[in-house]
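Most newcomers find our protein records easier to grasp once they have seen one. Read left to right, the backbone structure tokens trace the chain's path through space. Once this layout is familiar, the rest of the handout is easier to follow. The record below serves as our worked example for the rest of this section:


***
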Amino acid sequence: MNLRNFCYVLLLSVALASCKKDGSSKESPSNADKYQLTIINGNNQTDTVGLMLKDSIVIKATNNDKALTGYHIQFLRAGCAEDLTNELITTAEGKVVFRWWLAGNAGQQNLKVRLLDTQNKPLDSITVNSTALAHKGVGWHLSACVPFTASLNKFCKLSTGRIFASLGKAYVRYSDDNGNSWFPVKGLGDTHNIVSILAGPKDELVALAFQEGIYYSKDAGLTWTFMGTTPFANEVFWDMAMTRTGKLIYTSRQRNVYLSEDYGKTWKLLNNGLTNNPYAYTYPTEAQNGDLYLVDDNGVLYKSTDAGANWKAVTSHINDGVNFEQVVSLYCANNGWLYKGRQDPTGGLFVSKDNGATYSRLLNLPNSFVFMPSMAPNGYIYFHLLFSGLFLYDGNAARKIWDDEGAGRGTPYIIANNGAVIVSSRPAIRFYN
């Protein structure tokens, strides 16, 4: 090798060595990013399941001990709240303040907190701990894991005791512990606007999605099948019921009545005898003998003895101030008895034990709007009074157990198999046990 080439190789070797040395220096721990989350306040608190911890959770995000501004902090809960993820953005001090609502399981609960980069990849994580206590004593309790942005519109129950709640454009949720905690029904997803959910006699489920149609489940809500578009997709929903034999009856604000006997796959319009009525219909009901009933918004009760093909008014609403009957609700209990609510001078709550042929008075409630009657597993009767509340009738007397908070015809409610009363509390759910 000549001298010129030798000098060139020597200079190249020195240059490469210098580059390697500089690269090692940039990767040294003293100059690397060191992202860190720190719990400033709120760790290791104790409170009751379903409640919000008294102290806020305060988290600080830093990089090499310098506060990070404008970074996303993600909060991941567990149990029935696993789908209720929250993200907050750090302040100029690198802090976020989070209010933690406990899930429904007693014992230790964990809140995982993650610092995210612009691609939502975690830069650091930390865990906040708490201890959740079970509800104590008899009274009204707040249910766990109900999103406060939801709008609850319907409860239904399977024979197993599992209860479902439809919450508008959010996950339908279910409870296996009599309303204490509510888990998401993931098989249906959270992109549909569910306006009603119903359970059938064989524990089948149907969910009505706004401007879509019916979703059907035969495995307690694990999987769902879309049954196709409906003829009433552009009509305003008024009421829907699944009868004791599995018939679906849908009524619209446009005064139409539809019936399906295959869980919403096909529908028949059932307006014969109803077309001249200017009022919409509610409380579609099937008696034990197969007769179908509707209540119109003017207080007239309609009946069909041929599966809805023809309808006839069975009460007259001739208002002379004294002698008239105004029906405002109807319900068929599992034992086949019909319960009728009347708002008129001699109104109240009535029961029929012969498929509606005759009625006897249970409660004297003149000029009171008796809505949403139902029978609990123990035989007690529950009902709403307009702008008043939810009442319980135990066979001797009626007493108010829940104030409707000005909700008019009443908020949705259901009675669990163990007797717990579960109500919508806009937007939360509460239960009495």
Summary: DSSP finds one helix and 37 strands in the chain. The chain has two domains: 35-133, 140-432.
